[in-house]
């Protein structure tokens, strides 16, 4: 995308810089500089490896010291005790740290309660448990382990240059991994997990698998770096290794540099290591620590996005201002809005034209799309079938044996008073909640109890009543994410094309590089729609898409929904704007207290006594 | 297997260290639950208060209990100032953890600057005076710590449940916007609450100085176990930290008596992990 293309121009610069850094020891680099730079490399690797899991996904781990410690003691055990060589020991240490990460992940990543502070605490606790186990077993036993006997591979002209080169290699590897991950589909998924994990899962992101993958990778690099560092310090103790210093320093570096950027931790690590190095003698080291504490406090308060994050949003604001200045003063907000509504109409007309064409073709093949009204439903294909669906919350029956059938190309209006179970129904069908009992057949496949992202890939998608876009992703990235993760086999180019198409369809083309916060409600609702449509679901569930919109916006939305149906997508439509419900729905289903109390043709259903009662209460009769 | 008397003495040691855990945890728990801040600076204030108690005793031969009356307002003011700073920025609980960690690092270095990294032990007549209770020897320091912990928990309980201010504080923590709509001045309350947490830190500091050898690095050594204490009970509940502190303190000292002291952390941190994994809901 744009970023990687911009990166290409910088590639030469990186290449030259890397060549200089790699070649310097052979041209005679002073020893003390080699040692200092080794320490810089050490922290860059640890911070970057922490960040590729914790910074991207928002799961702030305080357990990085555990992975680092496994690496340290891995080297002490494999090379020191068992006499394995340096390389196998280093790789094995990394693998052990990965295994620890996977074990911890398997324990906590499925639990919704272990997020945020709980995750930070549990990873910290695991570090201390591990430290206690190591200090009390022959791995250490208490006094620490000396590693004088282990041969350091002499890849440079001297011992210090060898460590320098090993550290440099770790930096290159970890930065490469972190950067590749950042720009990949998985990276986009991790960033979405950071913003709203539940929504990410519902839009097809395999959240558990992604977190496991990133955590294992994070652990591996920390373990490898730890194993090298064990030889660098040549004496390993539990109290030094598992102290709170490692996890806190890497978090500090990443936050200072910018945890949502692949280069953020590197910047933070360089700044802090040089800052610490400036104060090393006696009391000045203490002044340095005081200063670092103050910097941390102020940077978290003033720049919660870190240096790079803040710089990026400044740049963005500047370019936006410039654009606005070029457009001139006429783009006042109201005029702007009308303009976008007008262009939206235009888009709709174009697309409708295309669709009529497509429809003619499909009509010939026999399966009419836009003829839902009045057609006998029996002749149509069933796409979604709910049987005896129940969802109980500690005694409250939110859904109490719901039966419901949805046919292909149908718009089904789902009505009911507040608290009747409409939202729960959507949450259960899309897999966010698992049903207490009953079955959900989607395109002939049983979905009850399946992970939400798998259900999404079978073919059901949703929008949220209050839009829940991923705040840290642009409009394009929001839609692209759904296109990439929502279907089983989509190439990157296909997904990109789909995303652009649906952004155009919803009239957001001019906004595609904006962030959700910069959109108005109408646009955010349409972003919800674009995101739900991007992976071409068979069924789409719309949760009050019209609420809060102006009459002219509602007209556009109604047209849009008709267009969506005309492509053969089936729609479950939860809405309180009755005129729209009556105009759009082929069939109505009315829920009350978790049960279906009426269903059928709209006009008839609305006249039924039970429906009137459910809406207006028993008193209505008396009056 | 150690003798019955030794076990009993360990049990008593566990009870008193547990009371101290509870006392330190109380301020953290109140701030976390009601101010929505994970205040690592609390640990820094506890140890700064302990060092000041030590200094007042060794320099001016001031009784720790008199120091307590001086330190309570001092730390209340410090905590109010910090709260005022944090409140001027919209800060998430997680970022409050980072911001206050920065403060803790600075204070730790500051303590080291004044008192060096050496271990310091406050001489005190309360440590010399002992009494026997059912075959167990108890020092006055330990008894005082217990007393302070009980009084502090009682005071928090009384303020939160029996006074109008306490009800306003709880309402404000539940839904700040709604509370504001009902005319509650949430800003003023949060400043006051921060002051209470600061006062609790001062109390805990005096207790630490009474019973422990001080070193600047101790600030971070206590974080893990105190977090376990805080998370074990319900946040901002007045008695939960004390009870949780007793559970962890006793299990630690029993582990030490039966196995070796180096195994002690295993108990508290395994407990913390189990609690986090099994408790019903978040926060």
General description of the model:
The complex is a heterodimer of chains A (623) and B (283). Chain A has 623 residues and is an alpha/beta fold. Chain A folds into four domains: 32-244, no CATH class; 339-367, no CATH class; 381-459 and 537-622, 3-Layer(aba) Sandwich (Rossmann fold); 467-536, no CATH class. In chain A, 61% of the residues lie in helices and 11% in strands. Chain A has 24 helices and twelve strands. Chain A has helices at residues 2-23, 31-57, 64-81, 86-108, 117-136, 159-183, 185-202, 207-233, 238-241, 245-257, 264-278, 282-302, 306-327, 333-364, 422-429, 452-458, 475-486, 492-505, 521-533, 551-566, 578-584, 602-607, 609-616, 619-622, and strands spanning 145-146, 235-236, 382-393, 396-407, 411-415, 437-442, 445-446, 460-462, 539-543, 570-574, 587-592, 595-600. Chain A has a six-stranded mixed β-sheet, with helices on both faces. Chain A has a four-stranded antiparallel β-sheet with strand order 4-3-6-7, with helices on one face. In chain A, a hairpin with a 2-residue loop joins strand 3 and strand 4 (396-407). In chain A, helix 3 runs parallel beside helix 5 and helix 17 packs across helix 18. The N and C termini of chain A lie far apart (64 Å). Mean pLDDT of chain A is 84; it is low at 1-5, 330-346 and 355-378. Chain B is mainly alpha-helical. Chain B is globular and about 60 Å long. The mean pLDDT of chain B is 87. The longest helix of chain B is centred in the N-terminal third of the chain and has 32 residues, at 4-35. In chain B, strands 1-2 form a two-stranded antiparallel ribbon. Chain B has one domain (4-278): Orthogonal Bundle (ABC transporter involved in vitamin B12 uptake, BtuC). Chain B has 13 helices and two strands; from the N terminus they run H-H-H-H-H-E-E-H-H-H-H-H-H-H-H. In chain B, helix 2 packs parallel to helix 4, helix 11 runs parallel beside helix 13 (264-278) and helix 12 packs across helix 13. Chain B has helices at 4-35, 41-60, 64-87, 93-115, 125-128, 140-162, 164-174, 176-181, 186-211, 218-221, 223-232, 240-258, 264-278; strands at residues 130-133, 136-139. The N and C termini of chain B lie far apart (40 Å). At the A-B interface, helix 5, helix 10 and helix 12 of A face helix 4, helix 11 and helix 13 of B.
């Amino acid at each position: 995308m744009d970023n990687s293309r911009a990166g290409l121009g910088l590639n030469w610069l990186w290449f030259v810089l890397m060549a200089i850094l790699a070649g310097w020891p052979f041209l005679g680099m002073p020893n003390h500089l080699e040692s200092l730079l080794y320490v810089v490399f050490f922290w860059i690797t640890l911070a970057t490896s922490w960040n590729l899991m914790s910074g991207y996904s928002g799961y702030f781990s305080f357990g990085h010291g555990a992975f680092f410690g496994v690496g340290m003691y891995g080297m002490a055990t494999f090379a020191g005790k068992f006499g394995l060589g340096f390389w196998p020991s280093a790789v094995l240490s990394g693998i052990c740290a990965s295994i620890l990460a996977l074990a911890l992940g398997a324990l906590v990543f499925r639990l919704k309660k272990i997020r945020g502070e709980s995750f930070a605490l549990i990873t910290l606790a695991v570090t201390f448990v591990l430290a206690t186990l190591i200090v009390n077993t022959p791995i250490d036993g208490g006094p620490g382990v000396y590693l004088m006997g282990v041969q350091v591979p002499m890849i440079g002209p001297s011992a210090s240059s060898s460590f320098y080169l090993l550290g440099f290699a770790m930096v290159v590897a970890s930065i490469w991994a972190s950067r590749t991950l950042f720009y990949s589909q998985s990276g986009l998924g991790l960033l979405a997990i950071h913003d709203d994990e539940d929504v990410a899962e519902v839009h097809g992101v395999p959240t558990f698998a992604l977190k496991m993958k990133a955590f294992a990778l994070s652990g591996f690099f920390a373990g490898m770096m730890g194993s090298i560092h064990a030889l660098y310090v040549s004496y390993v103790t539990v109290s030094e290794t598992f102290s709170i210093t490692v996890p806190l320093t890497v978090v500090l570096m990443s936050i200072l540099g910018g945890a949502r950027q692949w280069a953020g931790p590197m910047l933070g690590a360089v700044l802090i290591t040089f800052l610490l190095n400036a104060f090393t003698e006696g009391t000045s080291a203490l002044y340095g620590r005081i200063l670092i504490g103050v910097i941390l406090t102020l940077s978290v308060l003033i720049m919660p996005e870190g240096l790079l994050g803040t710089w990026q949003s400044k740049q963005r604001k500047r370019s936006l201002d410039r654009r606005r200045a070029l457009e001139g003063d006429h783009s006042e907000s109201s005029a702007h809005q009308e303009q976008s509504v007008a262009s939206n109409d235009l888009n709709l007309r174009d697309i409708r034209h295309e669709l009529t064409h497509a429809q003619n073709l499909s009509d010939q093949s026999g399966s009419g799309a836009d003829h839902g009204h009045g057609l006998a439903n029996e002749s149509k294909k069933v796409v979604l079938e709910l049987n005896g669906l129940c969802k109980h919350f500690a005694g409250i029956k939110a859904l109490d044996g719901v039966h419901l059938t949805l046919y292909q190309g149908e718009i089904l209006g789902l009505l009911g008073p507040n608290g009747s179970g409409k939202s729960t129904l959507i949450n259960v069908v899309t897999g966010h909640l698992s049903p207490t009992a009953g079955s959900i057949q989607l395109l002939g496949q049983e979905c009850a109890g399946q992970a939400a992202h798998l259900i999404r890939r079978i073919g059901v998608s949703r929008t949220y009543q209050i839009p829940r876009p991923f705040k840290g992703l642009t409009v394009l990235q929001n839609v692209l994410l759904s296109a990439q993760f929502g279907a089983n086999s989509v190439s990157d180019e296909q997904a990109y094309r789909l995303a652009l198409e649906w952004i155009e369809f919803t009239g957001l083309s001019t906004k595609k590089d904006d962030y959700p916060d910069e959109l108005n409600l109408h646009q955010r609702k349409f972003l919800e729609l674009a995101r739900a449509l991007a992976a071409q679901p068979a069924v789409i569930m719309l949760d009050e898409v019209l609420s809060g919109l102006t009459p002219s916006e509602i007209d556009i939305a109604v047209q849009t929904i008709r267009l969506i149906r005309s492509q053969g997508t089936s729609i479950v439509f939860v809405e309180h704007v009755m005129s729209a419900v009556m105009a759009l729905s082929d069939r109505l289903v009315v829920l009350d207290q978790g049960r279906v109390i009426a269903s059928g043709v709209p006009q008839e259903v609305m006249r039924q006594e039970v429906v009137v009662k459910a809406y207006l209460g028993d008193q209505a009769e008396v009056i | 297997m150690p003798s019955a008397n030794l076990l009993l003495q360990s049990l008593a040691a566990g009870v008193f260290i547990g009371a101290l855990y509870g006392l330190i945890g109380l301020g953290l728990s109140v701030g976390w639950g009601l101010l929505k801040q994970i205040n690592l600076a609390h640990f820094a204030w506890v140890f700064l208060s302990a060092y000041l108690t030590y200094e007042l005793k060794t320099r001016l031969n001031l009784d720790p209990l008199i120091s307590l009356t001086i330190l309570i307002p001092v730390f209340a003011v410090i905590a109010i100032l910090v709260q005022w700073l944090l409140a001027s920025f919209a800060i998430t609980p997680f970022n409050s953890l980072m911001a206050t960690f920065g403060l803790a690092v600075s204070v730790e270095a500051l303590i080291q600057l004044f008192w060096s990294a050496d271990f310091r032990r406050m001489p005190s007549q309360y440590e010399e005076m002992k009494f026997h209770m059912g075959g167990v020897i108890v020092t006055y320091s330990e008894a005082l710590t217990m007393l302070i912990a009980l009084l502090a928990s009682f005071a928090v309980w009384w303020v939160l449940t029996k006074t109008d201010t306490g009800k306003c504080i709880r309402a404000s923590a539940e839904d700040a916007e709604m509370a504001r709509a009902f005319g509650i001045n949430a800003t003023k309350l949060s400043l006051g609450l921060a002051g209470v947490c600061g006062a609790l830190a001062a109390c805990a500091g005096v207790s630490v100085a009474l019973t422990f050898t001080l070193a600047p690095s101790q600030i971070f050594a206590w974080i893990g176990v105190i977090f376990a204490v805080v998370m074990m009970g319900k946040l901002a509940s007045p008695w939960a930290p004390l009870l949780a502190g007793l559970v962890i303190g006793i299990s630690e000292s029993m582990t030490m008596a039966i196995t070796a002291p180096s195994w002690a952390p295993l108990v508290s941190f395994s407990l913390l992990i189990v609690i986090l994994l099994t408790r019903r809901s978040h926060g």
